[in-house]
Amino acid sequence: MDRILVYFIVITNFIVAIRFLHKKKCEIPFFLALFNIMVEYRLISLQLGYGHWVNFDYGISLKFNYEIAYAVSDLIALGTTIMMYCFIFFYRPPKRLLNDSDYYLGKYTLSKKSYIVVGLIVFSIFQLTLGKSISDNFVFLAKVGNNSFIILLFLITIFTKSKNRATKIFFYVLFIAMAYISYSPRLRFQFLGWMIPIAYYLTRDVKSSRKVTFLLIGIVLTLIVFSSAGVLRNKKIDEMSFKELVSDSFQRMLIADDINFIDGFMMMYQIYPDYLDYDYGKEHLDVVLRPIPRWLWKDKPLAGWFQNYSAKYGTSMTTIGFSPTVWGVFYAEMGVIGVIIFSVIWAWWLARLYSYFRSFASSLWGILVGIMLAAMIPLFRSGDLAGDVLLIFLSYWAMILFVRGYKKFVVKELRKEFYLNKAAA
């Protein structure tokens, strides 16, 4: 595909997404269009000489050139365009499935205050102390559960209408402490996993014209968080000045080292179907299979192209350090046809999920949509579909239980009010 045509499509998608945001107050197409722009930015940074192709030796003869990069870029643009316009097609204005309100949300949140505080303390202690004595994999997965409790703590602060200055200062200090604890070079999503929902909640009612500005600022801040954490993966913070950290983070942003989606997809593009057969849905099936321990099912299918390639060709296992995007996963499933089919399916699923989150009359919808946007970052970025879904579930399992309990609480309260009003009449 001609590059001018690709850029025209990408820019057109961005304009359409902004108009849809103005009209429907929905940010999902905006996220997709902006994601595609970042993909193209990585390619432009390579062309301008700012960045370099990923340099990993997997024992595989992989090529990195612009011919393959353009082919992959075309596939991502194709998948993004299909998903975005199908989402717009499937989108329906949310229907109120639950006649709740902030009164009920506040009442229920404060009734669970003790559980939330205990959960926050337990997971914070777990991060600070137990992380040094338990296997890395377990800690890596388990400690993200603090995301839900930090979000719920935020709801407590919202509905605890205290005029006591000491109480307010306590909450501010507590959130600063949570930010310090959760910011980790090894697990960058954890900080964003609670920060984005809270930021979205606070700006949920902002006018669309201003919201676009806030979203763009949010993207820049997200990139800064990723870049700074990426720098701290290789250097200790006590060995750097603040100026050096800012400089190195900016340089990392300039070369688009944290959005090397093109590079990752190029690897998969050369593996399927020449070295490995298409998966035909196995990548999605692995979402269900991943939690099953291998000691319980010794012949459980391997997940991911590199593990399957290593098993087939006898290469050594190593840690993968690239992000082929969710469209790389679609390509591994069925090639170009997979990119098209799964983009349509995912658009339908995203539209249904977004409508459900917006169905709450209370401001809880702001938290839920914020969680959805935060979850889409690892889901669309890394290409490890099963691992990303597991990460998201472990991050928000407490929020799932909270929403489930809240719905039952509201139904019970509405039923109680109905009978009281009926008796009074």
Question: What can you see in these coordinates?
Answer:
- It is a single chain.
- The protein starts with a helix and ends with a helix.
- The chain folds into two domains: 3-95 and 260-357, no CATH class; 102-256 and 358-424, no CATH class.
- Helix 1 packs parallel to helix 3 (66-90).
- The chain is built from 17 helices and no strands.
- It is an all-alpha fold and 425 residues long.
- The chain is globular and about 75 Å long.
- Keywords: Membrane, Transmembrane, Transmembrane helix.
- The chain crosses the membrane at residues 6-22, 29-48, 68-91, 115-134, 140-159, 166-183, 212-232, 253-272, 329-351, 363-380, 386-406.
- This is Oligosaccharide repeat unit polymerase.
Contiguous uncertain segments of 5+ residues: 132-136
Biggest β-sheet, characterized? none
Count of β-strands: 0
Distance between the termini: 71 Å
Number of domains: 2
CA-atom Rg in angstroms: 23 Å
